[in-house]
Design a protein that fits this description.
2 domains, alpha/beta, globular, Rossmann fold, 315 residues, single chain, 4-stranded parallel beta sheet
Length: 315
Amino acid sequence: MDPIPFTEIEAARRRIETQILRTPLVRLNVDTGPIEIYLKLENLQTIGAFKIRGAANAMAVADPEALAIGAWTASAGNMAQGVAWNARRMGIACSVVVPDHAPAAKLDALERLGATISKVTFDEWWQIIVTRRHPGQRGAFIHPVSDRAVMAGNGTIGMEIVEDLPDVDAVVVPYGGGGLSCGIASALGHLAPNIPVYAAEVETAAPAAAAFLAGEPVGVEYVPTFVDGIGSSRVLDDMWPLVQKLLAGSLVASLDDVTTAVRTLAVRNRVVSEGAGATPVACALNGDAGIGKIVCIVSGGNIDAAKLGQILSHS
C-alpha cells in the first residue's frame, strides 16, 4: 500500500468540510522546559472523536448500491459512532460489531445514534478487521483502518496542524490500526516531509512497537484496559508496509502514565480525553518524542464518566 496522495486528502477536505469541526490546536498548560506540547483537540468533534472525518469521506465515495442497503463497521466505539452519525445524516441503516469490552459510554452513544449493535469476543472482532466479513452483515463495509478514503479523511488533520503550527517539530498519534497516523503522515509527507510522525501505544497492547523491533508484524499480548480506543494483538499485514514507510517509530507509555495524562489534561486544560487520546500526551511528557514543539493528537473524549471520576479522585 502506498501513501495517500495529497490530492486525495485535499479532495477529502472539500468533501467533508460541512460535516466536521476544524478543531483547535492549543498549548498544554504545563511547564515542560524545552518541550512545548500542543493538543489537537479531536475530542471536540460532534461524536467526540476524529473518526467522523474518515467515516464521512469513506461514506461519501462508497458504492451507492451497497450504501442504499446500509453501512456497517467493526469498531470498539469511535469509528462506529462516525459511521452511525453519518448514516443517520444520510438516512440509511447502520449496524456495528463491537468487541465485548467496548465501554458503556461508547455503546450508549451508538444507541442514541440509532445503530444496531452486535457484541462479539475480541478475537472474533479482530477477524472482522482482518477479513472484512461477518455473517449477517449487509451493505457498505467501512473499514476503521485500512481504507484509503478513511485515511484521506484522517489526513485532513495533518493539513490543519501545518497551517496552525508551521514550525512543528514532531507529531505523536494514538495507534490503533494505523489509519490515523498514516493519514496524518501522508499529509505531512507532502507539506512538511522532515517532521517525524510517531505512533503512541500503551504497554498493555503495543503491536507497532513490537513490529518495528522485529522488522515485521508479530503477535503480542493484548490486555484490555480503559485505554480501549487503541491497541491490538498484531499490526495488520496490509498496513505494515505503510506504517514502516511513514512512521518514525512507536512510543510506548505505561498505563500509569496514561492515567496521569488523562488527569493532567482535565486539571490543567479542562480537556476530557479518553485513554487513547491521552497516550500521545503521556509519551510527550516523558520526553520520548524529543524537544521542541510537539503536537499530540487528542483523538477522542469518549471516556466513561465513572472511570474519569475515579482517575480524577486519585490525584
